[in-house]
Amino acid sequence: MPELVVTALLAPSRLTLKLLRAFMWSLVFSAALVAAAVYGCIALTHVLCRPRRGCCGRPRRTPPACLSDPTLGEHCFLTLKSSGLRLHYVSAGRGNGPLMLFLHGFPENWFSWRYQLWEFQSHFHVVAVDLRGYGSSDAPKDVDCYTIDLLMTDIQDVILGLGYPKCILVSHDWGALLAWNFSIYYPSLVERLVVVSAAPMSVYQERRGVGPPRPRPDACLPLPLDYSLHHIGQFFRSNYVFLFQLPWLPEKLLSMSDFQILKTTLTHRKRGIPHLTPNELEAFLYDFSQPGGLTGPLNYYRNIFRNFPLAPQELATPTLLLWGEKDPYFELGLVEAISSRFVPGRLETHILPGVGHWIPQSNPKEMHQYMWAFLQDLLD
Fold first, then answer.
1. Is 130 a catalytic residue?
2. pLDDT tens, residue by residue, 341-350
3. Does an H or E element contain 25, and which?
Protein backbone atom coordinates (compact mmCIF):
# COMPACT_ATOMS: atom_id res chain seq x y z
CA MET A 1 0.00 0.00 0.00
CA PRO A 2 1.43 3.41 -0.96
CA GLU A 3 2.85 5.37 1.97
CA LEU A 4 0.57 8.32 1.23
CA VAL A 5 -2.53 6.14 1.55
CA VAL A 6 -1.31 4.65 4.85
CA THR A 7 -0.63 8.13 6.19
CA ALA A 8 -4.11 9.27 5.18
CA LEU A 9 -5.75 6.26 6.82
CA LEU A 10 -3.85 6.78 10.08
CA ALA A 11 -4.39 10.53 10.20
CA PRO A 12 -7.77 10.42 12.03
CA SER A 13 -6.40 8.08 14.71
CA ARG A 14 -3.31 10.21 15.21
CA LEU A 15 -5.39 13.36 15.46
CA THR A 16 -7.74 11.73 17.97
CA LEU A 17 -4.82 10.61 20.10
CA LYS A 18 -3.32 14.10 20.05
CA LEU A 19 -6.63 15.64 21.05
CA LEU A 20 -7.09 13.14 23.86
CA ARG A 21 -3.59 13.78 25.16
CA ALA A 22 -4.18 17.53 25.00
CA PHE A 23 -7.40 17.01 26.96
CA MET A 24 -5.54 14.87 29.47
CA TRP A 25 -2.85 17.48 30.07
CA SER A 26 -5.44 20.22 30.38
CA LEU A 27 -7.09 18.20 33.15
CA VAL A 28 -3.76 17.55 34.82
CA PHE A 29 -2.66 21.17 34.92
CA SER A 30 -6.10 22.43 35.87
CA ALA A 31 -6.03 20.05 38.82
CA ALA A 32 -2.43 21.12 39.54
CA LEU A 33 -3.46 24.77 39.84
CA VAL A 34 -6.31 23.91 42.19
CA ALA A 35 -4.01 21.73 44.29
CA ALA A 36 -1.41 24.51 44.36
CA ALA A 37 -4.00 26.94 45.71
CA VAL A 38 -5.10 24.50 48.41
CA TYR A 39 -1.59 23.51 49.50
CA GLY A 40 -0.51 27.14 49.31
CA CYS A 41 -3.17 28.03 51.86
CA ILE A 42 -2.11 25.11 54.07
CA ALA A 43 1.56 26.13 53.92
CA LEU A 44 0.73 29.79 54.63
CA THR A 45 -1.37 28.74 57.61
CA HIS A 46 1.59 26.81 59.00
CA VAL A 47 3.81 29.87 58.60
CA LEU A 48 1.31 32.16 60.33
CA CYS A 49 0.81 29.69 63.18
CA ARG A 50 4.57 29.21 63.65
CA PRO A 51 6.15 32.52 62.59
CA ARG A 52 9.49 31.78 64.23
CA ARG A 53 10.15 28.96 61.77
CA GLY A 54 9.93 31.33 58.81
CA CYS A 55 9.11 30.53 55.21
CA CYS A 56 12.06 28.26 54.46
CA GLY A 57 13.11 24.88 55.72
CA ARG A 58 16.05 24.64 58.09
CA PRO A 59 18.89 22.55 56.63
CA ARG A 60 19.97 19.87 59.10
CA ARG A 61 23.72 19.92 59.68
CA THR A 62 24.09 16.57 61.39
CA PRO A 63 22.25 13.32 60.58
CA PRO A 64 20.37 11.77 63.51
CA ALA A 65 22.10 8.94 65.32
CA CYS A 66 19.54 6.34 64.25
CA LEU A 67 20.78 6.55 60.65
CA SER A 68 24.12 5.10 61.74
CA ASP A 69 22.76 2.34 63.96
CA PRO A 70 25.21 -0.55 63.33
CA THR A 71 22.56 -3.20 64.04
CA LEU A 72 20.75 -2.19 60.86
CA GLY A 73 23.67 -3.07 58.61
CA GLU A 74 26.66 -1.70 56.75
CA HIS A 75 26.44 1.48 54.66
CA CYS A 76 27.75 0.92 51.13
CA PHE A 77 27.68 2.47 47.66
CA LEU A 78 27.18 0.77 44.31
CA THR A 79 28.08 2.30 40.95
CA LEU A 80 25.39 1.37 38.45
CA LYS A 81 26.57 -0.21 35.21
CA SER A 82 24.04 1.49 32.91
CA SER A 83 24.07 5.07 34.19
CA GLY A 84 27.27 5.39 36.20
CA LEU A 85 25.28 6.81 39.12
CA ARG A 86 26.18 5.82 42.67
CA LEU A 87 23.40 4.48 44.87
CA HIS A 88 23.66 4.29 48.64
CA TYR A 89 22.38 1.15 50.35
CA VAL A 90 22.41 -0.54 53.74
CA SER A 91 23.30 -4.23 53.74
CA ALA A 92 23.16 -6.98 56.36
CA GLY A 93 23.24 -10.78 56.41
CA ARG A 94 25.41 -11.32 53.33
CA GLY A 95 25.91 -15.06 52.90
CA ASN A 96 22.85 -15.94 54.99
CA GLY A 97 20.55 -16.63 52.06
CA PRO A 98 18.94 -15.15 48.93
CA LEU A 99 18.96 -11.41 48.20
CA MET A 100 16.00 -9.53 49.69
CA LEU A 101 15.91 -6.06 48.12
CA PHE A 102 13.81 -3.26 49.63
CA LEU A 103 12.41 -0.29 47.66
CA HIS A 104 11.06 2.64 49.68
CA GLY A 105 8.39 5.23 48.92
CA PHE A 106 7.91 8.99 49.38
CA PRO A 107 8.62 10.83 51.64
CA GLU A 108 10.94 8.14 52.97
CA ASN A 109 14.36 6.56 52.42
CA TRP A 110 16.16 3.30 53.25
CA PHE A 111 15.44 3.85 56.97
CA SER A 112 11.75 3.06 56.45
CA TRP A 113 12.80 -0.62 56.26
CA ARG A 114 14.58 -0.69 59.66
CA TYR A 115 12.21 -3.26 61.16
CA GLN A 116 12.55 -5.56 58.17
CA LEU A 117 16.36 -5.25 58.15
CA TRP A 118 16.41 -6.44 61.75
CA GLU A 119 13.88 -9.21 61.12
CA PHE A 120 15.17 -10.93 57.98
CA GLN A 121 18.96 -10.57 58.07
CA SER A 122 19.28 -13.96 59.80
CA HIS A 123 18.01 -15.85 56.72
CA PHE A 124 18.52 -13.43 53.82
CA HIS A 125 21.00 -10.92 52.50
CA VAL A 126 18.87 -7.83 53.15
CA VAL A 127 19.58 -4.66 51.18
CA ALA A 128 17.66 -1.40 51.53
CA VAL A 129 18.56 1.18 48.89
CA ASP A 130 18.18 4.92 48.68
CA LEU A 131 16.57 5.19 45.27
CA ARG A 132 17.96 7.57 42.67
CA GLY A 133 17.50 11.16 43.90
CA TYR A 134 17.09 10.19 47.55
CA GLY A 135 19.41 10.45 50.52
CA SER A 136 23.09 9.82 49.82
CA SER A 137 22.42 8.39 46.35
CA ASP A 138 23.25 10.49 43.31
CA ALA A 139 20.49 12.93 42.35
CA PRO A 140 20.50 14.16 38.75
CA LYS A 141 18.67 17.47 38.37
CA ASP A 142 17.00 16.83 35.00
CA VAL A 143 13.39 15.63 35.14
CA ASP A 144 14.11 13.24 32.26
CA CYS A 145 16.53 11.32 34.50
CA TYR A 146 13.60 9.93 36.51
CA THR A 147 11.57 8.03 33.94
CA ILE A 148 10.14 4.66 34.86
CA ASP A 149 12.44 2.92 32.38
CA LEU A 150 15.57 4.42 33.93
CA LEU A 151 14.41 3.63 37.44
CA MET A 152 13.74 0.00 36.50
CA THR A 153 17.20 -0.21 34.97
CA ASP A 154 18.59 0.99 38.30
CA ILE A 155 16.91 -1.95 40.04
CA GLN A 156 18.32 -4.38 37.49
CA ASP A 157 21.80 -2.95 37.96
CA VAL A 158 21.53 -3.21 41.74
CA ILE A 159 20.54 -6.89 41.65
CA LEU A 160 23.23 -7.88 39.15
CA GLY A 161 25.80 -5.52 40.67
CA LEU A 162 25.41 -7.21 44.04
CA GLY A 163 26.21 -10.52 42.36
CA TYR A 164 22.77 -12.17 42.31
CA PRO A 165 20.77 -13.61 39.39
CA LYS A 166 17.44 -12.73 41.05
CA CYS A 167 15.93 -11.42 44.28
CA ILE A 168 12.96 -11.26 46.59
CA LEU A 169 11.69 -7.76 45.90
CA VAL A 170 9.95 -6.01 48.81
CA SER A 171 8.37 -2.65 48.14
CA HIS A 172 6.10 0.10 49.45
CA ASP A 173 4.38 3.14 47.90
CA TRP A 174 6.53 4.53 45.03
CA GLY A 175 8.92 1.63 45.41
CA ALA A 176 5.97 -0.72 44.94
CA LEU A 177 4.90 1.04 41.77
CA LEU A 178 8.40 0.44 40.40
CA ALA A 179 8.37 -3.15 41.65
CA TRP A 180 5.11 -3.96 39.84
CA ASN A 181 6.59 -2.71 36.57
CA PHE A 182 9.90 -4.44 37.21
CA SER A 183 8.21 -7.81 37.77
CA ILE A 184 6.46 -7.41 34.39
CA TYR A 185 9.48 -6.38 32.32
CA TYR A 186 12.22 -8.26 34.21
CA PRO A 187 10.41 -11.38 35.47
CA SER A 188 13.54 -13.55 35.51
CA LEU A 189 15.11 -11.25 38.13
CA VAL A 190 12.21 -11.49 40.60
CA GLU A 191 11.78 -14.76 42.49
CA ARG A 192 9.06 -13.41 44.79
CA LEU A 193 7.37 -10.04 45.05
CA VAL A 194 6.08 -8.39 48.23
CA VAL A 195 4.01 -5.26 47.63
CA VAL A 196 2.64 -2.92 50.27
CA SER A 197 0.13 -0.15 49.58
CA ALA A 198 0.35 0.43 45.82
CA ALA A 199 -1.21 -0.79 42.57
CA PRO A 200 0.32 -1.30 39.12
CA MET A 201 0.04 1.74 36.88
CA SER A 202 -2.15 -0.03 34.35
CA VAL A 203 -4.78 -0.85 36.98
CA TYR A 204 -5.69 2.83 37.24
CA GLN A 205 -6.80 2.80 33.62
CA GLU A 206 -9.56 0.29 34.24
CA ARG A 207 -13.04 1.78 34.39
CA ARG A 208 -14.17 -0.82 36.93
CA GLY A 209 -12.30 -2.62 39.64
CA VAL A 210 -13.28 -6.08 38.39
CA GLY A 211 -13.43 -8.00 35.15
CA PRO A 212 -10.80 -8.84 32.56
CA PRO A 213 -8.79 -6.06 30.89
CA ARG A 214 -10.40 -4.75 27.76
CA PRO A 215 -9.58 -2.00 25.25
CA ARG A 216 -11.52 1.25 25.67
CA PRO A 217 -11.63 4.50 23.72
CA ASP A 218 -10.70 6.48 26.85
CA ALA A 219 -7.76 4.22 27.74
CA CYS A 220 -5.27 7.05 27.39
CA LEU A 221 -6.49 8.74 30.55
CA PRO A 222 -3.77 8.16 33.16
CA LEU A 223 -3.30 7.80 36.90
CA PRO A 224 -5.24 8.95 38.61
CA LEU A 225 -7.50 10.51 35.96
CA ASP A 226 -9.51 7.65 34.50
CA TYR A 227 -9.89 5.59 37.65
CA SER A 228 -10.55 8.74 39.66
CA LEU A 229 -13.13 10.08 37.22
CA HIS A 230 -15.17 6.97 37.99
CA HIS A 231 -14.08 6.76 41.65
CA ILE A 232 -14.15 10.37 42.77
CA GLY A 233 -12.82 9.47 46.20
CA GLN A 234 -9.52 8.32 44.68
CA PHE A 235 -9.26 11.62 42.82
CA PHE A 236 -9.21 13.53 46.10
CA ARG A 237 -6.92 11.02 47.80
CA SER A 238 -4.37 11.56 45.01
CA ASN A 239 -4.57 15.37 44.91
CA TYR A 240 -0.89 15.78 45.81
CA VAL A 241 0.09 14.03 42.55
CA PHE A 242 -1.25 16.99 40.60
CA LEU A 243 0.56 19.55 42.75
CA PHE A 244 3.85 17.78 42.11
CA GLN A 245 3.50 18.27 38.34
CA LEU A 246 4.45 21.94 38.75
CA PRO A 247 8.07 23.14 38.71
CA TRP A 248 9.76 24.53 41.90
CA LEU A 249 6.51 25.45 43.69
CA PRO A 250 6.00 22.03 45.38
CA GLU A 251 9.55 22.17 46.78
CA LYS A 252 8.83 25.60 48.21
CA LEU A 253 5.48 24.65 49.74
CA LEU A 254 6.78 21.42 51.28
CA SER A 255 9.74 23.21 52.89
CA MET A 256 7.79 26.13 54.38
CA SER A 257 7.59 26.38 58.17
CA ASP A 258 10.50 23.93 58.46
CA PHE A 259 8.87 21.18 56.34
CA GLN A 260 5.62 21.21 58.30
CA ILE A 261 3.58 19.58 55.51
CA LEU A 262 6.02 16.63 55.48
CA LYS A 263 6.00 16.51 59.26
CA THR A 264 2.21 16.36 59.25
CA THR A 265 2.20 13.67 56.58
CA LEU A 266 4.48 11.44 58.64
CA THR A 267 3.15 12.15 62.14
CA HIS A 268 -0.57 12.87 61.72
CA ARG A 269 -2.62 11.13 64.40
CA LYS A 270 -4.82 9.27 61.89
CA ARG A 271 -2.92 9.34 58.59
CA GLY A 272 0.70 9.25 59.75
CA ILE A 273 3.11 6.66 61.15
CA PRO A 274 2.05 5.70 64.68
CA HIS A 275 4.61 6.17 67.45
CA LEU A 276 7.21 7.77 65.16
CA THR A 277 9.83 9.29 67.46
CA PRO A 278 11.32 12.77 66.89
CA ASN A 279 14.66 11.12 66.07
CA GLU A 280 13.04 8.84 63.49
CA LEU A 281 11.20 11.80 61.96
CA GLU A 282 14.53 13.58 61.58
CA ALA A 283 15.90 10.49 59.81
CA PHE A 284 13.55 11.32 56.94
CA LEU A 285 13.73 15.12 57.11
CA TYR A 286 17.54 15.23 57.18
CA ASP A 287 17.94 14.34 53.50
CA PHE A 288 14.99 16.43 52.31
CA SER A 289 16.36 19.47 54.15
CA GLN A 290 19.59 19.49 52.18
CA PRO A 291 19.84 21.84 49.15
CA GLY A 292 17.85 20.28 46.30
CA GLY A 293 16.85 17.37 48.53
CA LEU A 294 13.19 17.43 47.44
CA THR A 295 13.67 17.89 43.70
CA GLY A 296 14.80 14.35 42.86
CA PRO A 297 11.92 12.64 44.71
CA LEU A 298 9.36 15.03 43.21
CA ASN A 299 10.73 14.37 39.72
CA TYR A 300 9.35 10.83 40.04
CA TYR A 301 5.86 12.34 40.05
CA ARG A 302 6.69 14.74 37.21
CA ASN A 303 7.26 11.73 34.96
CA ILE A 304 4.25 9.70 35.98
CA PHE A 305 1.89 10.96 33.26
CA ARG A 306 4.39 10.28 30.48
CA ASN A 307 3.79 6.54 30.69
CA PHE A 308 0.24 6.45 29.38
CA PRO A 309 -1.61 4.93 27.71
CA LEU A 310 -0.49 1.58 29.12
CA ALA A 311 -1.36 -1.78 27.63
CA PRO A 312 -3.13 -4.13 30.09
CA GLN A 313 -0.63 -6.53 31.61
CA GLU A 314 -1.20 -9.98 33.04
CA LEU A 315 0.67 -10.40 36.32
CA ALA A 316 2.32 -13.76 36.93
CA THR A 317 5.10 -13.30 39.51
CA PRO A 318 4.24 -15.00 42.85
CA THR A 319 3.19 -11.99 44.90
CA LEU A 320 2.21 -11.13 48.46
CA LEU A 321 0.04 -8.00 48.58
CA LEU A 322 -0.54 -6.21 51.89
CA TRP A 323 -3.07 -3.39 52.09
CA GLY A 324 -4.28 -1.19 54.93
CA GLU A 325 -8.06 -1.05 55.29
CA LYS A 326 -7.81 2.62 56.33
CA ASP A 327 -5.19 3.68 53.78
CA PRO A 328 -5.88 7.41 53.26
CA TYR A 329 -4.17 7.54 49.85
CA PHE A 330 -5.48 4.47 47.99
CA GLU A 331 -8.98 3.05 47.90
CA LEU A 332 -9.66 -0.49 49.03
CA GLY A 333 -11.34 -1.17 45.67
CA LEU A 334 -7.92 -1.21 44.01
CA VAL A 335 -7.18 -4.56 45.64
CA GLU A 336 -9.93 -6.27 43.65
CA ALA A 337 -8.72 -4.55 40.49
CA ILE A 338 -5.21 -5.91 41.12
CA SER A 339 -6.53 -9.43 41.70
CA SER A 340 -8.32 -9.42 38.36
CA ARG A 341 -4.98 -8.94 36.59
CA PHE A 342 -3.27 -12.00 38.06
CA VAL A 343 -2.72 -15.49 36.77
CA PRO A 344 -4.80 -17.67 39.15
CA GLY A 345 -2.90 -18.89 42.18
CA ARG A 346 -0.06 -16.35 41.91
CA LEU A 347 -1.42 -13.65 44.26
CA GLU A 348 -1.82 -13.82 48.03
CA THR A 349 -3.66 -10.82 49.46
CA HIS A 350 -4.13 -9.66 53.03
CA ILE A 351 -6.10 -6.58 54.08
CA LEU A 352 -5.07 -5.37 57.53
CA PRO A 353 -8.13 -4.12 59.47
CA GLY A 354 -7.92 -0.60 60.84
CA VAL A 355 -4.42 -0.09 59.40
CA GLY A 356 -3.28 2.85 57.27
CA HIS A 357 -0.66 3.41 54.58
CA TRP A 358 2.65 2.91 56.41
CA ILE A 359 2.45 -0.85 57.13
CA PRO A 360 6.24 -1.60 57.18
CA GLN A 361 6.64 0.90 60.02
CA SER A 362 3.23 0.88 61.71
CA ASN A 363 2.55 -2.88 61.69
CA PRO A 364 5.87 -4.67 61.21
CA LYS A 365 4.90 -7.75 63.25
CA GLU A 366 1.89 -8.52 61.06
CA MET A 367 3.90 -7.86 57.92
CA HIS A 368 6.69 -10.16 59.08
CA GLN A 369 4.28 -12.99 59.88
CA TYR A 370 2.77 -12.84 56.39
CA MET A 371 6.22 -12.63 54.78
CA TRP A 372 7.68 -15.58 56.68
CA ALA A 373 4.70 -17.74 55.68
CA PHE A 374 4.91 -16.55 52.05
CA LEU A 375 8.64 -17.32 51.84
CA GLN A 376 8.65 -20.53 53.87
CA ASP A 377 9.12 -22.85 50.90
CA LEU A 378 12.28 -20.96 49.88
CA LEU A 379 13.73 -21.51 53.33
CA ASP A 380 12.86 -25.21 53.26
1. no
2. 899 999 999 9
3. helix 3-49
